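User: I'm writing a short methods note and want a consistent example. For Cell division protein FtsL, I'll paste the sequence; you return only the structure tokens, no commentary, since I'll be parsing the reply automatically.
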Amino acid sequence: MMRLLLALLIVANVVSALLVVFARHEHRQLFVQLNKLQRERDELNIEFGRLQLEQATWAESNRIDQVARERIGMKFPEGAETVVIRP
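Assistant:
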């Protein structure tokens, strides 16, 4: 009877040790994945900031005016070219 109890305790101890090793290994893998995702998040935040700055630059009225003049030849009408229509 004592031998059986001792054998069960040894088996339970070995199983417990294996489960601890498995849990630590899984924890390490998840920690590495967390660090990778945090780096990815930081890179995406930097890229988002760059894109916001670029969008603000392209949306400036001076930039729009410059593109309209250079690419499609737009210009402000002269006083004689302006027609006012009243109801």
